[in-house]
Description:
Blueprint: H1 3-13, E1 16-24, E2 30-39, E3 46-56, H2 59-66, H3 76-101, E4 110-121, E5 134-138, H4 141-148, E6 152-154, H5 156-162, H6 171-179, E7 185-191, E8 194-200, E9 210-216, H7 219-228, H8 239-242, H9 248-255, H10 275-285, H11 291-313, E10 320-325, H12 332-341, E11 346-349, H13 360-374, E12 393-395
Parallel strand pairs: 1-4, 4-6, 7-10, 10-11
Antiparallel strand pairs: 1-2, 2-3, 4-5, 6-12, 7-8, 8-9
Amino acid sequence: MHPNISQLYQIAQKPSRRIIGLMSGTSMDGLDIALCAISNAGTQTKLTVEQFMTVPYTAVFKEKLLTVFSKETISLAQLCVLHPWIGLAHAKYVNQALAQWKIKSTDIDLIASHGQTVYHAPKSLHPTDEYGTATLQIGEADHLAVATGIITISDFRQKHIAAGGEGAPLAVYGDYLLCHHPTEHRVLLNIGGIANFTYLPAACSIDQIFSTDTGPGNTLMDAYIRKCFTDLAYDHGGAIAKSGRIDEALLSVLKNHSFFNSTFPKTIGPELFNLDFIVAAQIALGKTILPNDLMATLNRFTAETIAEAIHKNVPAGTNFVIYLSGGGLHNTLLIDNLQALMPEVQIKSTMDIGILPDAKEAMLFAVLANEAVAGTPILAGGKATQLATTMGKISFPI
């Protein structure tokens, strides 16, 4: 037996594994690194976060990513060279984190690397051509594995698509394995660049859960802030939006896009929800909105599309609790808007169920890596896939 296969077999047989989950989202703020201790698999999964940190991306790093991010026309050479370059950068961050935590790489079983999404193309974005759903994440895992000396599981979204899904949202699997509850109906809402939620009915089986993207989370607000307030990366706490007034006419135009009338579950990305989307809405409206008023409107837009998606997919009369994670958790105006739209619902942080909100997505990919080596194929509910599946490709360090 090849020594790599032997090592992987031994890892799969262990009662618990130490897995580093890596996540870099569409906001491109930085790399989340979560060191997780995971025992068992499937519905018996138990996870503890031993260490967590976010390595902020520098302005230069972001500029390089933006040359290929969510653009229909790019330099193929630039995409080619960025693929290994990002893998090596992520490896450097992992090695630095391990050194800071005084942990040897030999004490880590696996790395779960999401990579950096540069384009997400569900069929809904190109309905008339012969191609199906596609997605692309870069950050070559072979380079990551070799540079860290740790077996790396990556490229999770491709198997999801191959099994009949749209490559997102993948949180459905970890949300179910870690967060289902015997008596409480739960909605796990993540507001990153794109907002998505998982509905977990009390005492549910995995075929009863539902997960979908809802539309923009922070992506439109962040993009507009970077354009109009060049010294800011985002609207801290929703402060700029708080100083503006909602333009109801613009809000109506924004919500009139066909995406919001399409069938659930669905996925989307900044390929649709970007600055061009905002410009087109103002052109359709026939006027330009002042920046602070536009921010107030975008904040409300995100809140309303989230609330409406939840109301459409959680049975009427259900008493449920929302547990929130992602960068949107820190936007107090956004949370106030959500609460005003759903006054009957408790909105809490995932910290209330033992999950660090900023680490949640990195944790969930660590869970997917654990399932890839020690679990069994899962068929998630909500039409996530047509086949039971595990996700992730394996890269060995030697």
